[in-house]
Amino acid sequence: MNSTPEWQRTFPPSESQGWTISFIERKSRYWIAASAGRKNAQLFEPGVQRAWQWAEPSPWIRWFTDGERRYGKELWKLASVYLPSRITSDAYPYQKVWREGLEVAIKLKGSQGKARVEWLKVEHPFTAMSSQAEVHANHVEAFNSALRRRATADRRRQNHYAKQRKGLQRALNVQRLIHNWVRPHWSLGKRTTPSMAMGFIQRPVRISEILLPRGFEFLTL
Fold first, then answer.
1. Which contiguous run of DSSP H or E holds residue 98?
2. What is the pLDDT, as a whole number, of residue 111?
C-alpha cells in the first residue's frame, strides 16, 4: 500500500491508505476486528465500535493499547457514564468516568528502556485497577510481527495484491479467517484455534470448508 521510498518522498505518511488497526482478545487470541485505511476518524471509529460491541457484555474489561490515543478517545464516546451526585464527593469530584468494570490504559515507550503506562480518562470509583506489569500490548505486537511474515500485503514497501485499500482489506479478512478458525495457536494447546478457545467450534476448520459458500457465510458472520 503506497509505501515505496519514492512515494514517501512525495507524500507524508498520513496520506497512506495502508494504515491498519487490529483488536485481539488476549486470553483466547481471537482476532476480533481488522480495518485498513487512512489514519483518521473513518478508520478508528468503526473499528473501536466493533470491538466494543464484542466486549460490552462482559462485566470486567481491560482495554490495553499501544501509544495511539485515538483508541481511547473513540471508546470514551461509547463507554463513559455520569455518576449520580450521591457518589461524587470532595475526595472523588469526577462525575463523568469510565463504565464500572472497565479500565483503559496505553503503554508508551519510556526513557532508558523502561516502558511507561498511562491510564486514560478517569476510572470508575468501584473499579479495581490492574497492576502496571499487566498493562501491555505484547500479544498484539507479536501478532503484527507474525502477520508481516505470513501476509505479503502487510509487509513494509510491499504492494503485492494490495495496491489499493480494498485489496489490503481483503488480505486482512483472509488472514483473520485463517488465524481464528484454521491455524492452531501454540499458546492455547495442541490443535487449538482461537475460535475453539472461545467455544465456537470443537475442531480446526479446513481451508476447503471455508471456500464453500455455506462455510464462508457462517465464519464471516
1. strand 96-98
2. 65
Taking alpha carbons only, the member of 96, 117, 39 closest to residue 71 is 39
- pLDDT higher than 70, residue 181: yes
199: burial class by Cβ within 10 Å (0-12, 13-18, 19+)? exposed
Instruction: Fill in the DSSP letter of residue 178.
Output: I
Query: By the 8 A CB rule, do 52 and 74 touch?
Result: no
CA atoms of 14 and 32, how far apart (whole Å): 25
Q: How many CB atoms lie within 10 A of CB 215?
A: 16
30 part of a folded domain: yes
3-state secondary structure 182-203: HCCCHHHCCCCCHHHHCCCCCC
Is 0.85 topped by the overall pTM? no
Beta bridge partners of 21: 35
Task: Please report whether residue 155 resides in a domain.
Answer: no
Cα angle 150, 201, 75 (rounded to 5 degrees) comes to 65
Cell of 6: 519514492
Q: pLDDT for 131-147, tens place per residue?
A: 888 887 777 777 777 77
64 - beta bridge partners?
105
Higher pLDDT, 70 or 92: 70
Q: Find the domain containing 205 and state its range.
A: 162-219
Same domain, 207 and 112: no
